[in-house]
Amino acid sequence: MSTPRRPECTVPLVEVAITEFDLACLPETGAVFDRLLALHPTQVVIDLSGCRHIDAAAIGLLLDVHRQLVRTGGVLALRNPNPRIARILQAARLDQILPVHTDNAAPPAPGTRTEAPPAGDPTLPGTAPRQSAYGRAAVTVRT
Q1: Does residue 30 fall inside a structural domain?
Q2: Which of 6, 14, 17, 23 is most buried by a 10 A CB count?
């Protein structure tokens, strides 16, 4: 007799703010991505506005996360890289693979309205983010 299988939990949008993204913090950042991919997100947005440096190891990790998301129908997007990081992403041609948004608004999750309430607005029910930190990456989950 087999045990009944529980349906998988999915999260529509996961936002990750990264402040350091290089080989030195790759194990910690990789662990964050492993945990968030277990949520089966529809969309992952990586906010790079506070990140000063990105290297080849970090680009490799982004490509790996992108491949894993594509397999499950998800999308990985980058948001607000500084001009130096934007040039690195262009040189690596990552901007041709991943959407790179330079505005302050998160791109809408597939199938959602275009004017989403701001994350963490206490006056709007269901928008308060659940936050936790792993290493140097702060993870915010918006439901």
Answers
A1: yes
A2: 14
In the chain, the number of structural domains is: 1
Q: Is residue 87 part of a domain?
A: yes
Please tell me the distance from the alpha carbon of residue 95 to that of residue 113, in angstroms, as a whole number: 25
| 118: in domain | no
Q: Can you tell me the distance from the alpha carbon of 64 to that of 83, in angstroms, rounded to the nearest whole number? A: 24
CA-closest candidate to residue 49, choices 4, 101, 117 = 101
From the number of C-beta atoms within 10 Å of its C-beta (0-12, 13-18, 19+), residue 43 rates as: buried
Whole-number pLDDT of residue 61: 96
Return the H-helix or E-strand segment holding 28. Answer: helix 26-37
Please indicate, yes or no, if residue 54 is contained in any of the structural domains: yes
Tell me how many degrees the CA angle 40-42-46 measures, rounded to the nearest 5.
95
CATH of the domain at 37: 3.30.750.24
pLDDT tens for each residue of 58-87: 999 999 999 999 999 999 999 999 999 999
